[in-house]
Design goal:
There is one protein chain. The protein is mostly helical. It has one domain (5-219). It contains ten helices and no strands. It has helices at 5-35, 40-43, 57-66, 84-116, 121-124, 131-150, 158-164, 169-177, 182-191, 194-219.
Amino acid sequence: MVFSRLDIANLLLRLPALLWALSFHEFCHGYVAYMLGDDTASKQGRLTLNPLRHLDPFGTITLLVLGFGWAKPVQISSRRFKKPRRDIALVSLAGAAGNFLSALVVAIICGIVVRLFPSSVFFILGRSMSSLGMVIINLMMLNVGLGIFNLIPIPPLDGSRVLSTFLPVSALRGYYFLERWGILVILILSYMGIIGRIMNPLFGMALEFLTWIILFIGLGGIM
């Protein structure tokens, strides 16, 4: 595939958002596990925002190009949790929660900037969007996209860990049998457009909400 200069520029503008979204996602997994009594991630050096500790080459490429992807999973030891099923669910939700929180914080900061400098709204959301505006938009979009994608209940995504806490023990073996084929299933569903049909409505609503936050804080709710 031959990339034009515009394609390369767009990829570079996505890069800061990608590095943050993946690194903070995995950091949140490890940190919540640590707070719940499991120091596995800490011992493996995963309680860091250093992207080199977290990036999965293939998952990074798909996130950069396709808008969804994954990092190297943070390992946990459920035997160290006081309430393993509950705590596994909390650890699993932590990554997506971190992404949604990141997107919300960016929106709030943008709203404050617009409040102080009203004309900046055109450089953040308008047609004359600057490179900095593109980085900001990518921070919100990639964090939202990564958070929603990882909540899909297909192993090995985080949503499958959450769903597993509600399944009877008799069903878990068959459910986790899917994990070895999970990435292939995800790619097939993506090719068929099913992943898009799941994500797009939620993605659109999330971005509308973040845009509303920016405008509400920055322009007093003027739409």
